[in-house]
């Protein structure tokens, strides 16, 4: 595709790298440490390693991998609750594929499926709706998981189920929001960040203004970025220019996809179906106020937590992380994946200990996929 190749042009990338190096030298002359730029989205992390940007970029820039991987930030207790529902004989439990191998305290969904639970991988909540239509004698539960990117499709499925009166369809809602964990990281006195690469797909839904507080209240620049190598390099350059000029603003590098005020249809569906939870538990970050969504009372019939008395609507078990697992430290930028003593030893893609080695957006999976044994060494 010519369009994609234009965003992977080596000559353009070299020019951007030269400009970045020049600004990094200029900024570095006034400080001792590298410029710490957090890419919030796990998709950006994989692009950085896929195209070798971590090796090509000036040594005065250090990428910090953020918590923008919805599968990775899901605590093990929520996986256990999925399995508890899936093991009910009347339930068909449906989920996206990247959640199948995330380990709970005892099993993953894939292992529970192998043990006999009726767990099916779907590509959309509409697939789960169709299963409900075809199986009126079964309870079909969809694992609603993800940031604002996937939240609208689940909301639209719930609205459609309500219109059809499908009483055997429900959603186990684990949808979460991006701005709140960023605030939690910025409030952490041990987290020293100079700027952010903002998520592209999330921003396509919510727009750029939900990030205004980052610049206004914390004085940090954020640039919403695309996923091609020149997108990311241009976004790094835009962050550096703000730092060099002593300003902080929210800028939109991905304007070809991200509208300033988001997608009105998606936002309307979200507002209709969901409301904020008082708090939600994040792996590595703990409870964060108003960071999760739950289904509104008007759609309570489609809320699996209410229907099965599970999760926040039931008695919640406290589940510790696996011994030796450093997922929380990696997601909050305190540790690189290769610094985890389990990386490549007790934790591999074939036998994952933590979610970051499983998810297609996990930082550990990116290090392994593009570094493998060399990274482990």
TrEMBL record:
Keywords: Iron, Metal-binding. Belongs to the HypD family. GO terms for molecular function: 4 iron, 4 sulfur cluster binding; carbon monoxide binding; iron ion binding. The keyword Metal-binding applies. It comes from the Bacteria. It holds the Pfam family HypD. GO terms for biological process: protein maturation. Gene3D superfamilies: 6.10.20.100, HypD, alpha/beta domain 1. The keyword Acetylation does not apply. This is Hydrogenase maturation factor.
